[in-house]
Amino acid sequence: MLDGLGMLLGGITHFLTPLSLFNIAWATLLGIVIGALPGLTATMGVALLVTLTYKMAPDQAILCLMCIYSGAIYGGSRTAILLAIPGTPASAATTLDGHPLALQGRAGLAMGLATTSSALGTVIGIFALALIAPLLAEAALKFGSYEFFWLALFGVVISGQLTAMDDPLKGYIAGILGLMVAMVGMETLHAHQRFTFGIPALGGGVDLIPAMVGAFGFAEILGVIKRTAQARIVSSSEDRVVPKLSEILKYWKTTMRSGVIGTFVGIVPGVGEDVGAWASYAAAKRVSKEAHLFGKGSQEGLIAAETGNSAVVPGAMIPTLTLALPGSAAAAVLIAAMFIHGIRPGPLLMTESPDVLYQIVAILLFSTLAILVFGLTLTKPLLTVLSVPRERLMAVVYVLCVVGSFAITQRMFDIYVMVAFGIVGFILREMKYPMAPLVLGIILGDLLDLNLRRGLMLTNGDPTPFFTRPISAVICLIIVLTILMSIPAISMRVRALFDTRRAGIDR
Amino acid sequence: MTDQIEEPAGGEAPAMIKADLLTSLVFIVLSASMLYGSWTMDRLANRRINPMTVPGLVPGLLSLALLICAIALMVRSVRTPSVGGWLDLGAAVTSQAARRAGMVLFLALVYTLGLVGLVPFWLATGIFVLAFILVFEVWLAAPRRTLRQSLPWAIGLAVATAAIVTFVFERAFLVRLP
After folding, report:
1. Minimal Cβ distance to A403: which of B5, B137, B177
2. Residues A474-482: contacts with CB within 8 Å, 24+ apart?
3. Same domain for B66 and B80?
4. A399·B165 Cβ contact <8 A
5. Are B60 and B24 part of one and the same domain?
6. Is the ipTM of this complex over 0.85?
7. Mean pLDDT of B58-76
8. pLDDT at B4 over 60
9. Chain A environment of B101 (Cβ under 8 Å)
10. A180, A210, A359, A432: which sits with the fewest CB atoms below 10 Å from its CB?
11. B36: nearest CA partner in chain A
């Protein structure tokens, strides 16, 4: 415990340098702008900026990327409140109450509450990160190939299920497609080339960064330009932006609950900030005394959504750092960036470089402070950013997509990968396939493949330990139940069974 | 595309159901090809590896999983009533929105596959940004802007993007450009 506190203090002092503070300031501000601009998402921002941090020292590079990530998740609330368009998918729930508040002439209050809620949500998540991550990393040291195989599968299945709530089948298909992409290139157990069709560039497999830039960057450009409607900014931001302490504390229970829900959602692999916001919003509405106000400008609803989505960011870092399972799509890019900079996330992180965890905790604390300062002071300049015509913006973003996918390995092939993933990603999005399971599949494919076959090699081909080891058995059971419950015929029968039982008890 | 594929209350739009049917067929072909590729993949028998650890094992299992999901999607699409679905889907594919997306794709492909590598990167970037802004502000916009309104902005942004991207990436961050 004391060791942890010491390392946390070490992490904080490590970044108390002019260069670090400068990086925190510009990266958080850039993140807020990226999040505020409709069509630019947190994942896209982080993926594009990996290139810029390529030549930086590892700690400064991760600092910049983390600040962009948390800044972008917050920045989306601006657009949600003023334009009724979520700047990032994470802010979709914010739109429901944030925009009605703006229409009532309380845009300033809505922006202020969104800022303080985001900060509080991140702080709750940071506590969980500092407390849970070391414990999880220690527990993960006992995991073998069997457990890691099931964890990888669990990540893809649960992400497929939760990111496509209306249609889990499409979520599963997206996840399988991602896993299939990961099968291309040299496999690591026997060093055999798979599905390379004699193309040398495919030997190393499909790189995550160009794939992510395509799926989240180019696909987004196609989607944004496709629409012709331009939203109108609600210009009634004359009221105060800094909320009163009583307004923040009035809904402290909602803040705490949403923070915990957001953190938990973040811990679940591949389930991002949007699910965190919706889950927190739904929970707040269910227990609120003012449920009738939700959707009509409820401050409680706004607080729930913003606390929930921001708490996902530190929550997502828990599996990312301790198990190398990305907690969200943006965290998947962070894993790739960490590998580029020589940091190996996973169970050995706490043994090899425990300071990294506490440095990330410190980074999140600093970025939260920066969000508070920028969010409460830069109201007018951020309004100007929102009025940039998207045709002009998207042209520049595509140039960054090209540079971003080329710069890391300096191969034209990666640009073609970006374009291909952009086209496929756009078509899949139009058909309502979620992108998060696809990305998770690409990053977890190798883990799944290697651990399944390594486990089978250790047992001489006997699959029994995959089902009999306690942790493996539990994860396997959860996966089976998740898949079974997503089949409409089965879930309806189970629900009917419970209803009949409940009716019997009531009688 | 989805501008036309609006979801009616209580279920999927007919166009989406037909689109699902088409994609399920694509996934069936993809999974069958991958299954064949996995089955015929070298089993490294000369290296005497355990047959349960052959390189084709996981791709084979994945293609089977995709095949099952694709068949479920196809059956669901066939069973769900979707009157006028093909017509709606056709209208969506030929809509103004699809035309705009198609134009983005065209410009992006010309820039990426044609200009980059053929002319210096800064020039390719300038041409792309200029063309992109003019096409989507003057031609495919609603309401349209006049060439006189858009051209100064387009030229300014083209020059600025070409200069800033080249300077920031090549000089400040020492990243090579295509």
Report:
1. B177
2. A475/A147, A475/A150, A475/A151, A475/A153, A475/A154, A476/A150, A478/A154, A479/A150, A479/A153, A479/A154, A479/A157, A482/A157, A482/A158, A482/A161
3. yes
4. yes
5. yes
6. yes
7. 96
8. no
9. 222-223, 225-226, 426
10. A432
11. A195
